[in-house]
Design a protein that fits this description.
Elements: H1 2-72, H2 75-82, H3 88-102, E1 106-111, E2 116-119, H4 126-142, E3 147-153, E4 156-166, E5 172-181, H5 184-194, E6 197-204, E7 207-213, H6 217-226, E8 236-242, E9 245-254, E10 262-269, H7 270-321, H8 336-361, H9 367-376, E11 383-395, H10 397-403, H11 406-426, E12 430-435, E13 438-443, H12 452-476, E14 483-499, E15 504-509, H13 511-522, E16 532-535, H14 536-541, E17 546-554, E18 563-571
Parallel strand pairs: 14-16
Antiparallel strand pairs: 1-2, 1-5, 3-4, 4-5, 6-7, 6-10, 8-9, 9-10, 11-13, 11-14, 12-13, 14-15, 16-18, 17-18
Amino acid sequence: MFRFRRFRTRLLVIILGLLVASLGTSYVLLTRANRSNAIAHIEASLASAMDVFRFSAELRQQRLAQSAQVVSADWPLRTLYLQDELDRETIYSLLLSYADRLQVPIIAAFDAEGELLASTIKGGTTADIVPFRLLAAKADADATDYATGFAYLNRELHGLVIVPLYAPRPMIIGWLGVAFPIDNALAQSLKGTTQADISFLGLDDSGRRMLATTLPADQAAAVAALSPADPGLQTRTSIETIAGEPCVTLSAPLALLNSPPAGIELQRSLNAELAPARELENLILFVSLAALALASLAAFGVARGVSQPVQELAEHTAIIARGDYTTRLHPHRVDEFGQLAASFNRMSEGLAERDRVRDLLDKNVSPEIAAQLLRDGAVLGGEERVVTVLFADLRGFTTLSETLPPRELIALLNRFLERMSAEIERHGGVIDKFIGDAIMAIFGAPVAQTDAADQALRAALAMERALSDFNIELLAEGRPALAIGIGINTAPVVAGNIGSHRRLNYSVVGDGVNVAARLEALTRHAEYRTTILVSDATLSAGTGHYQTRNLGAVIVKGRAEPVQIHALDGIAEVES
């Protein structure tokens, strides 16, 4: 009884342990999946927000360019430009009117050579004029009606547009430049559209500085401190802790006309994204704990009633695990445990039968060999047979292995071997072994075939056709076509199990096998103009009519006597 109680306790502990492990693992996987999904969702939304900014800036520049083109055609402005003595004060007065009209703070007028005539830049320096000149040079070189870009004006980030003044087209008499600020108001507008915080950071002698942002002051300072000194040219995504808040950040460069790139950083709070998922996680955790408590009570009750039959079954399982399939349970119950004991007895019988079959089948791979073993119930011994041996080898496999990744190479090789093996087996052949990218097949053993030679020849032609169809698929996938070489020979061999008492392999050995392998190797010679070489012995053993070419006698490696070989081109049509 003490043993039963101890077993019951162990069973209860195991069940509860498995349940706790299962619930804990599920909870951890759920939280990780929620976090991963949240990060992926934020990254996608930040990428969309970056696209929105670039699209909005480009659209704003295009609209300003169109408005500036309309302004550049104003008669008063063109009249002033056509005067011999340019009235800079009047031009400045017009620029103030145009700035109010275009709703931009900065507008500047230049002569045809790019010299500044007037601008609304307050406290501007010569450096503030350079970006407009660069845009004018770009528009002039590209022969376009406007050019756009980004630059610092008065140390603040602006989007710039410049348009030429014609009198008439294509004569350029001056340039009109317009700029709009990229400031906190623009950042807030973008946040309202994208639901993401956005910051623009500049680079000067003192390091990174915040140009515009939607973040509070403490978070803005943290972003400026974390941002790289050089934003580089690549967009990157990272997870950063900003003022104690984990955030997903998307950083991207903003190219400037005459300065190092500015930086654009978009952030979204990871905790805010995870908030709905966390509520679900907490609910699942509560339900899991309640289920664990109920399961503990149920397991304790069940364990009290099942400890003895379970222990008997466990002991019997240990007996089966040792390989003893003769011992039987003697059930004295008519309930489910009695049925389970009877099932254990049937399982023992089945395992005994399975081991007998496995012991036979594990030593052979061919279905034909397996069928003969199961039918006869005897171990095959070595015997002399006249068989037809077929060797097939994939051409250029070494070159192919250098160009394809290993996973793709194995997948391609398996597809090739599947097609070739199917044709061999369809014609009654037995796959003896796969040698890398090569196949050795036997016709006439272990099951005798009266037409083994004919079946081997037809299988070779079918393999050639199957490869042609396979190459069509490969070409459609953008892969190079494959080539094959096949050698066939008919000869007496010794067929039987080769190996040790622990592991056997049914195969054939003899000079005839070597000849078939050498014929396959000879298909590499271009002068034969064939992929299938067969020996005279195979053609003589066959009864079919084939299209062949006599290639004469050759000396093959490892054999003193020459072998008469033929190229197999197809099956001949017989007149009735």
